Amino acid sequence: KFKKKWATTLPKIPCSRLALQYFDMNYSMQFGDLWPSIRISLLTEQKYGALVNNFSHKETVLKNLSAFNAKDFISEAQHVISLLQIQNNLDTSEKMTSGEASLNLVGQKNNAEKTQATNLLSSLSNTKLTCFKFSRGDISRFPQSRSDSFGLLEYYLMDAASLLPVLALDVQHGHSVLDLCAAPGGKTLALLQTENCQYLAANDLSTSRSSRLHRVLRSYVPRAQRTEHKVCITSQDGRLWGDAEANTYDRVLVDVPCTTDRHSLLEEENNIFHRIRTKQRQMLPLLQAELLVAGLRAVRPGGEVVYSTCSLSQLQNECVVERAVELAASDHGVHVKPQDLSCFREVFKNTFNFFQGCRVGELVLPHLTANFGPMFFCKLLRIE
Ligand code: SAM
User: Fold this and answer.
1) Is the C-beta atom of 183 inside 6 A of ligand 1?
2) What is the pLDDT of residue 88?
3) Domain 32-382 belongs in CATH node 3.20.20.360
4) How far apart are CA 256 and CA 289, in angstroms?
5) Ligand 1 pocket mutation, candidates 204, 259, 291, 376, criterion most atoms within 8 A of CB
6) I need a labelling partner for 52 at 20 to 30 A (CA). Which of 91, 187, 333, 349 fits?
7) Is the CB of residue 351 less than 8 Å from the CB of residue 128?
8) 255: which strand partners?
9) Which of 15, 131, 181, 310 is catalytic?
């Protein structure tokens, strides 16, 4: 007996081609006229940012990176914030003399949103994070980082848009923070670079990816900054966190597994569009919602959670947030409110290209002149 011939001769369509077909079908509906521009950008080499390692010889690193003609996009945003604040003060004093209600920093909002935006922008003005990028349209690349005389690497290359969820999380001095899906560790490293975490729990289900996280932290963070009292790395199913450590953390980052759109279009290896992973791909929104619910339960009342993906899919972004908010309330009595992050669109518009049409959260769209993202992020405040 021999196997049927069709089993071996069935045409093998590359996973990346399947991903493109799927995206063409779904994203052309979701983004309409914007899709051709996003599509060509996704298929073109992405841009990186260089996150400066504050634990290395920072002055030297800053000098070296500036020599490449690259700029720190966070200090550029801080400059925009100062200008907005000056503008806001002028507007406020004019309105007060004419008796009208004052405008807020970025567009007209209610008082609660105005306070949130003001607090977030003031934290952004004080953040210790520094990340260099090349200007719009400049497609230069950073060389691989070197070790300094302490043996620590000088900067970490990452999609600069990946810093936005970390900045949105707004970790304050003394906070205890949970990074629920942490490996390979770009955002964990950025959280430590804020130098605000009193305690950081970094978890990832995959043991092999957790080893990469260990390696990243060893290469960038001095031993004294990652003792067991300061950083704890675990390898568990994040969905269990709601039961294991309910009402515990000040801040939780839920950077979930997703269709990793850019990777799926360019790499065959470990591609979620492989036929044998169809079921896993279809179950992603459920897994994402369960992870987000666990994060919402793990944060203390008054604490904040940021949900993020590197996918454009509305089903994995806004729909997951909306579903998780419902589930947290109905199944666990945990009530949360999505927070307005539109001020990010204003202060980071020189670096990133934002989508204007999200119901909740913000989405960075890849663009040929600013080829970062996709990156969706949404912040949720736990009320009770
Ligand atoms: N935050 C990481 C970073 O910035 O480098 C990237 C995280 S990646 C988008 C998603 C991660 O979720 C993967 O490393 C994957 O192993 C992990 N993951 C998948 N299922 C999980 C689960 N049930 N619990 C915890 N982690 C999970």
Assistant:
1) yes
2) 76
3) no
4) 9
5) 204
6) 349
7) no
8) 308
9) 310
